[in-house]
Amino acid sequence: MYALELEDLVMHFGPVRAVDGVSLRIRKGSVVALVGESGSGKSTVGRSIVRLLEPTGGTVRLADADITHLSRRRLRPHRRDVSIVFQDPAGSLDPRLSVGDIVGEPLRLMRQRDTTGPVAEALRRVGLRPEVAQRSPHELSGGQRQRVSIARALISSPALLVADEPTSALDVSVQASVLNLLADLQRDLGFACLFITHDLSAVEYLADEVAVMYLGQLVEQGPRERIFGVPAHPYTQALLSAAPVPNPVAQRARQPVLLGDDLPSPIDPPPGCRFHTRCPVAVEKCRTVVPEARVIGEGGHQVACHLVSDDGTGPDVRERPGRWGGESIQTQSNETGVAR
Amino acid sequence: MSAISKVNTEPPAGTGQVGSTAAGTGQAGSNAAGTGGVGVPVLEVRGLTVTFRTEDGPLSAVDRVDFEVADQEVLAVVGESGCGKSVTAMSLAGLLPRTASVDGSVRLDGRELVGADKKTLRSIRGREIAYIFQEPMTSLNPVFTVGNQIGEVLRIHNGLSRSTARKRSVELLKLVGIPSAERRIDDYPHQLSGGMRQRVMIAMAVACDPKVLIADEPTTALDVTIQAGILDVLRGLRERLGTSIVLITHDLGVVADLADRVAVMYAGRVVETANVNELFAQPKHPYTAGLLAASPSAGRHAGTHRLNEIPGLVPVLAEQPNACTFADRCSRARDTCTTEQPLLTAEGTPNHHVACWNPVREPVEV
Hints:
heterodimer; A: 340 residues; alpha/beta; Rossmann fold; eight-stranded mixed beta sheet; four-stranded antiparallel beta sheet; 13 helices; globular; B: 366 residues; 15 helices; 12 strands; disordered N terminus
């Protein structure tokens, strides 16, 4: 039933607690977006799933097989079950290989001799002509390179695709074509996808479910409509309010929640709720007691916040007058009674 | 309020109030001031052309760009990578390397900057026209404290003494929303978060109260919750100090948030200029319309909606052709588009200019 199950995943790099207890399931054929800002640990989660990193603790299960600590050799049969696409297509394609060799490499590693046919088919699927196989990555544009990365990732027909900021390095118009392509491929081929990104508008376009990460932990997860419609965690609310929308009338009617710039370090994360140092509504309990994730609504909508009750009601930081984030100019102008 | 009132070159009280209400009424007031041609614009760019000498021959980066920025106006120059927006920004105060040849005219308060000698440019940079860039860490010196670096600007340009410069630096840090400024002033750049560093860069840039602030992708390297704070600071500068801002960005959300007026660039040329509301509501250049329809918008999912794609690639130009450079990607292209260059002309309203032989006239659903 699940393409991926993460249970209490922990990944520490020396003193850095990059991922600290993440539990997440992805149903077969569904797209889950893992959202967070830089340093939240979202990419580390992705790399642990494809075992570029061996987790410090917890389990990674791919289609019922526990791969958390498998050796390289024992891991090989599972390699075809999961692929990854990275943010920077220029850096993740070997410049000395032809596009055909790059796309066919996963099959060759699986001892398949003739890869010409499958490579041509994989290129066709991502909207590239078969002749591109003879070209070298540097001859291609950024968008075309990302298509090559996607073709390589999908040639082994994986049950799960990890896409780590696949469109973040691309221009808006190119981004659109790659997002459309991912949506088409996912619908046609039916793979499950962990879509790692900081871009909320892309999340709303592509994802079925959303998981929000902050400082190594999930603060909220649930169906797309719930996360965008009735976000419960103050951090999710702040994140949604801060992302500007490309519509001046709508954008200027909004009031972003300003959180203050100082992100705590994952070396020494705050006690209690990790978000309490930036949370506008934190109370004493938040500083000392770690909030557990609880189901608060349909579709497995979960939140880890003391202030949200079991039926999902709680504070909405977006409705609070005034702004947060220290002595910011707008806070001062609000003190003088000027509404924005 | 207290922080800002100490900044010496505060605009008259009346101006400050106008600024505050403009924010409340969705910038309507500023728009009118920005484009109505009230008085002489602070910055006036005419026929700006930049060509780079490269090993593979000349490379045309900017071609006869025209725009002007009014007092207290935020002009966004928006476009995708390689469209020439950053080169345009750098050329304004002569920051380009020697391999670039710059022609045309850039007038700051009536004074010509293209071809001005080094001494003139040096006296203008920082004092009248200041920059902030995308990556604050590489623009700050890692071996000096924040206070040292802001103080240096004040001592060199304004001749302040060490102690006065320090006092003023604290005020500036407060102005850009740095909490406990008295303490943070002795921090080194590495002790600050990315957002705080960008705030420091802004403090340095406005230290001498420049007329024009050029912000080149000021929030691109920052997370959205941090970005919101920086946009707020920039908005505050315009309202409180009366600074005009040229905002260089690729992010349409940032444009929608901060700009009064927008110039859209494509392949080295400005293809459309309009007030921000009009540009988003009724884009006239097919490229602008395509760009707006390419960004995912709220409430739309791939199950029921498809993002607009712009076919083809941005051309890399050795020489600018006498044609529309968007023609081969454009669904509205006609014969004229490949044989004659369209120039910016008013279309619809007097403040809306588009360089297109077949502009979009039908209502656009964005």
